[in-house]
Specification:
Blueprint: E1 3-7, H1 12-23, E2 28-33, E3 53-57, H2 70-74, H3 92-103, E4 107-110, H4 117-122, H5 124-147, H6 152-164, H7 170-176, E5 185-191, H8 216-235, E6 239-244, E7 246-248, H9 257-267, E8 271-274, E9 280-285, H10 286-299, E10 305-308, E11 313-315, H11 316-334, H12 341-347, H13 352-357, E12 371-374, H14 389-395, H15 403-416, H16 418-425
Helix pairs in contact: 1-10, 3-5, 5-8, 9-11
Length: 437
């Protein structure tokens, strides 16, 4: 059983990964999350009380003198530190070090990041802090922890000695069987946006494509990628890096394209399409991505980068029309979705006799009618596409979901879990457009 420290585990990709690790891979997970607007504990409500799930709230980027609640939260970790009788300072670094010592993880999977391009346009500073400074702090803590691990041969001798003492309890044996330097891994999870934009007929991004980020978000992620590789090359930390295409699926915060489209339809509101809707993205179902990350962690070669794509390129306009069509089918087949009043006003014209008798409108409007073209995003990349040949040939991973199955599953999840997204929209975020400056 692996004990894995996951950062950003309460976010979209993170929560799906945590669930996969615990429920399907038999792992113990320590979830480190700041719980920003996009980190939602409700996304992991089904794991509450699970003995293999642990949560620590921490801001990886918080300046040393301002780390919130560190004294309180570290108290449970103090016994595992070298100086268990002294108070730890209120620092992110010491809190991270204490967490490492408390849980003794076999690996780190680093997903914590600010990830919405529009938000990075409005407030780039937060992206630098979280994506760059936060990654630096985590790398430093991971390096210190890794350097303190035993060598593989020393670990083997320790295990043999403990196992031979038959009067020892099984729990005591497991506590002494720490990971070692050879087995520890640090997986840094990144995006294909660091590569820039592709021409319509160009081959997909490969692992050797030069970096060419165009937004504050992609620039901050490119910086974090370089940091991870530098800590591998300079200090020997066993790092792996992945770059993925656009994710979609359950638990995605409703600021990204697919949940925005679904929820705009359900609310009968205009669906904003940037520019002409011609921008192309490769769409990856989130559980396929989670499976790929576990595959890289357990099978990947140290120091290597693996691109993860969905083999599912769509223009934004075609994607939106497909989602609208799926919702149209749901109305027709089940009647579960009422026709929103605003949508009816835009599309359906009742025959005069129906208006006179006040009979229900029988014309079924189409959600596609809500599509509204708006001013394009500044610096909007035209096309992303991933070449996943390396991970397929070396590690045997391929996506299971295609555009038809994945999009349908996603629409159905948002229909079945309306309380999850209604709770989000009851707060400060109301599906408004961001990043126009």
């Amino acid at each position: 059983m692996h004990k894995i420290l996951v950062t950003g585990g309460s976010g979209f990709i993170g929560s799906n990964l945590v669930r996969l690790l615990i429920k399907e891979k038999g792992c113990t997970v320590i979830n480190l999350d700041k719980l920003t607007y996009a980190g939602n504990p409700e996304s992991l409500a089904d794991l509450e009380g699970d003995p293999n799930y642990h949560f620590e709230q921490i801001d990886l980027a918080q300046p040393e003198a301002e780390q919130f609640e560190s004294k309180v939260r570290v108290q449970g970790c103090v016994a595992a530190t070298q100086n268990s009788n002294s108070e730890l300072e209120h620092t992110s670094g010491n809190l991270l070090n204490a967490i490492f010592q408390k849980y003794q993880p076999d690996a780190v999977m680093h997903l914590a990041a600010e990830s919405h391009v529009d938000r990075s346009i409005d407030g780039p500073g937060e992206f630098i802090q979280t994506n760059v400074v936060g990654t630096f702090n985590l790398l430093q803590a991971s390096l210190q922890y890794w350097r303190g691990l035993p060598e593989a041969d020393a670990q083997s001798r320790s295990d043999t000695l403990v196992a031979s003492e038959v009067d020892k309890k099984a729990t005591e044996v497991s506590l002494l069987r720490y990971p070692n330097k050879e087995t520890f891994r640090f997986l840094h999870v990144s995006t294909d946006e660091v590569y820039g934009s592709l021409a319509p007929d160009a081959p997909g991004f490969s692992e050797i494509t030069p970096y060419d980020p165009h937004s504050p978000y992609s620039a901050s992620k490119a910086a974090s990628d370089h940091l991870a590789r530098a800590w591998a090359d300079t200090y020997g930390l066993p790092v792996l890096v992945t770059n993925c295409s656009n994710n979609y699926g359950p638990y995605q915060f409703p600021e990204k394209l697919i949940p925005v489209v679904i929820l705009k339809c359900l609310r009968g509101e205009p669906i904003p399409v940037y520019g002409k809707g011609e921008n192309i993205r490769d769409w990856l179902y989130v559980t396929d991505h989670a499976e790929a990350l576990y595959t890289v962690l357990t099978k990947g070669r140290i120091g290597e980068t693996y691109n993860i794509g969905g083999n599912n390129e769509q223009t934004n306009l075609d994607l939106i029309k497909q989602i609208c069509a799926i919702l149209d089918e749901e109305i027709k087949s089940s009647g579960a979705l009422p026709c929103p009043a605003k949508l009816g006003e835009r599309r359906a014209e009742s025959p005069p006799e129906q208006l006179k008798t006040k009979q229900p409108i029988t014309v079924q409007p189409k959600y596609e009618s809500l599509i509204t073209f708006v001013t394009d995003r500044p610096g909007h990349d035209m096309r992303y596409a991933i070449d996943s040949t390396k991970i397929r040939d070396e590690l045997g991973w391929e996506p299971k979901e295609d555009f038809a199955s994945g999009f349908r599953k996603t629409v159905q999840w948002y229909l079945d879990n309306q309380s999850w997204w209604k709770d989000i929209l009851s707060g400060s975020y109301k599906l408004e457009r961001l990043g126009k400056s």
